[in-house]
Design goal:
By secondary structure, this protein is α/β, with parallel strands linked by helices. Helices cover about 40% and strands about 15% of the residues.
Length: about 325
């Protein structure tokens, strides 16, 4: 991985990786899946966490961190601001409030690298780094415009979701309806899912479709992920993790409550995370890219916040 640089306060980026990974592992060990929250008990609307100033949604591992904070602390909003942004919007963070720490990935060129490149006649190489920054939920602020406290209505259970149908159709993926199992076949580039009436809760049909579209997005001529791992392998578990979270991110964007589609992989996910404290960062980055890729077929604007810099995150990871 090379030399670790500490551009902010001398803090090791490895400690950030480990801190976030340990938090995710603890939740999984307790049977809690970070990308599937108990939204029925939540005060906040179902949605991706959003920056209230820019209007853009957060991506990658920051979705899991902010969703967890909304549930744990009972916030009534999915909208977040930095301390400075709250002031710029005419409000402020209430005295005594504690923020939520998220991650920012980027790259910079150290002075020593500039000098080395000039001496050797080469282009200087940027060094990836990861640092923390703090967000506050709008529920922790006062004096903000009323529009920042609005909510959206979730999609009712057991009803067809036209917007989900439209997105699935817009991808032009080869969907084959039938059978009792759902799967994606990379060699044939097609998805098979059971007919919607076969699902006990018909809304699960959409959750399943988006899970399989998550796999579909990883084909070599699309996002080019490793889809060659056999059942039970670590690469298979990693890809399932990406598809699970990608489906959850798409569902949340469409107002459909995410659920765990493949809880039987929990042990495999834990094994992957325990072995590599970068794994959850890679998986959430890839899941955000998969969701963004699929949502773009519906004409939706990219919802990844520039602060996340998913491409830089992948370099760091």
């Amino acid at each position: 991985m090379g030399k670790i640089h500490h551009p902010v306060g001398g803090e090791s980026r490895s400690s950030i990786y480990q801190e976030v990974t340990d938090r995710i592992i603890r939740e999984l060990e307790q049977g809690k899946v970070p990308w599937v929250q108990p939204w029925g008990q939540a005060k906040a609307e179902l949605a991706l966490p959003k920056n209230a100033s820019s209007g853009r949604c957060y991506s990658g591992v920051n979705i899991l961190i902010l969703w967890g904070a909304v549930i744990e602390r009972g916030f009534a909003s999915q909208q977040w601001l930095t301390f400075r942004q709250a002031l710029e919007l005419g409000g402020n963070v209430r005295r005594g409030e504690h923020g939520t720490t998220v991650c920012y990935a980027d790259r910079f060129i150290p002075k020593s690298e500039i000098e080395r490149a000039a001496k050797d006649g080469n282009e200087p190489e940027a060094v990836p780094f990861l640092k923390r920054f703090t967000l506050f939920n709008v529920a922790q602020c006062e004096g903000l415009p009323e529009r920042l406290h609005g909510v959206c209505e979730p999609v009712p259970e057991r009803e067809i979701a036209p917007h989900a149908e439209a997105l699935i159709a817009a991808t032009r993926a080869d969907f084959r309806i039938g059978g009792a199992r759902a799967f994606y076949v990379p060699s044939g580039d097609y998805i098979q899912v059971p007919p919607q009436p076969a699902f006990f809760d018909q809304i699960n049909y959409y959750r399943t479709c988006f899970h399989e579209l998550g796999h579909w997005s990883g084909a070599a001529h699309r996002l080019d992920r490793d889809l060659k791992g056999g059942f039970g392998s670590k690469s298979y578990a990693r890809e399932e993790l990406v598809a699970e979270m990608g489906s959850a991110f798409i569902c949340a964007t469409l107002g459909i409550v995410p659920t765990v589609r493949h809880a039987d992989y929990l042990g495999s996910w834990l094994e992957v995370l325990r072995e590599d404290n970068h794994a959850i960062f890679r998986a959430t980055s890839q899941a955000s890219k998969a969701a963004d890729f699929i949502l773009a077929f519906g004409g939706a604007a990219s919802w990844a916040v520039a602060l996340d810099r998913a491409d830089a995150m992948e370099v760091v990871a």
